[in-house]
Amino acid sequence: MTNIAIIVAIDKQNGIGKNNQLLCHLPNDLKHFKQLTSGHTIIMGRKTFESLPNGALPNRKNIVITRNQHVTYKDCEIAYSLDDAISKNAEKNIVFIIGGASIYEQAISVATMLYITKIDATFDADTFFPHINKNDWTLVKKESHQKDDKNPFDYTFETWVRKTSSSQDILGV
Predict the structure, then answer these.
(1) Is residue 155 part of a domain?
(2) What CA–CA distance (Å, rounded) separates 52 from 142?
(3) Can you give the pLDDT at residue 161?
(4) Dihedral over Cα of 84, 90, 92, 95: its sign
(5) Would residue 134 count as lying in a domain?
(6) Residue 28 maps to which CATH number?
(7) What is the pTM of this model?
């Protein structure tokens, strides 16, 4: 069975982006993202893929969801729905949903894990992460960090597991 993990950085108001870009540059969050997703499948929408500065992310199977039947992207597989993208996961262990907002909205009801970086700031976002019903999730790990010379905001890494998930799901990464 494939475990579906959402990975996202959000501000105090669940903002995730503006003008198809991240809200801020947090190098430690980017390292955390790379550490978690390397060697796994990542699923993203077309706009998220097009916002990546260097195309497909290395050491990961990149799947891009689009409605365009004629588009191709170097080093990526194309899917036409979230279900189609999940079905392309040959690993059958874990996939990471990395955005954007409409893909998160579709995935939140089927995700078994949430990796959330909470940025202790509010930005002028135009794109938001969907509401998380805390009754459905258990916080299993929380790691707070203070701003420093490279990371301009305080932030917290949180790992949440869906309450209906087994403990084996937690060990997927």
Answers:
(1) no
(2) 28
(3) 96
(4) negative
(5) yes
(6) 3.40.430.10
(7) 0.92
